[in-house]
Amino acid sequence: MPIKVLAIDDDVAMTDLLSLLLRTNKFDVITANNGADGIALVKHATPDIVLLDMMMPEMDGWQVCEEIRKFSNIPVLVLSALNKPGLVASALDAGADDYLIKPVPSNILIAHIKNLTKH
Fold first, then answer.
1. In what order do the strands lie in the sheet with 98-101?
2. Alpha-carbon dihedral angle through residues 108, 80, 98, 48, given to the nearest 10 degrees
3. How are beta strands 28-32 and 4-8 bridged, if at all?
4. What is the pLDDT of residue 83?
5. N-to-C CA span, the chain
6. CA-based angle 30:36:78, to the nearest 5?
7. Residue 8's beta-bridge partner residues?
């Protein structure tokens, strides 16, 4: 059974890249390009893990993570270009399980996904 990954990022090029990379490695991938759609997909598509960008318009990654935590313990892996220790800590405080800095090597990303989903 493939791991079902939900990628939430306002950058369509990023969700397309993640989809291509993860599907090539036998993952099932769904994407959302805003926080509200991502939260709805967590509720209705039952992914195994969420890959979440932090810097998004309207609803940022911190807000998305806090909303997800109100109803789900799904692993949340933050993928962000923000490389500041305080931001990493605040993402983890908001309920994220892990934090990787973009760009992340694909083998590292896959290892973290497998670790968080225990596959």
1. 28-32, 4-8, 49-52, 76-80, 98-101
2. -80
3. parallel
4. 87
5. 10
6. 60
7. 32, 52
Average pLDDT, the chain: 95
% of the chain exceeding 90 in pLDDT: 91
The confidence score (pLDDT) of residue 51 equals 98
pLDDT digits (tens, 9 = 90+) for 65-93: 999 999 999 999 999 998 888 888 999 99
61 contacts 39 by C-beta, under 8 angstroms = no
Which amino acid is residue 28, in one-letter code? Answer: D
Q: Residue 28 corresponds to which tokens in the numbers above?
A: 């099932």
pTM of the predicted protein model: 0.96
Give me 117's structure tokens: 């989903």
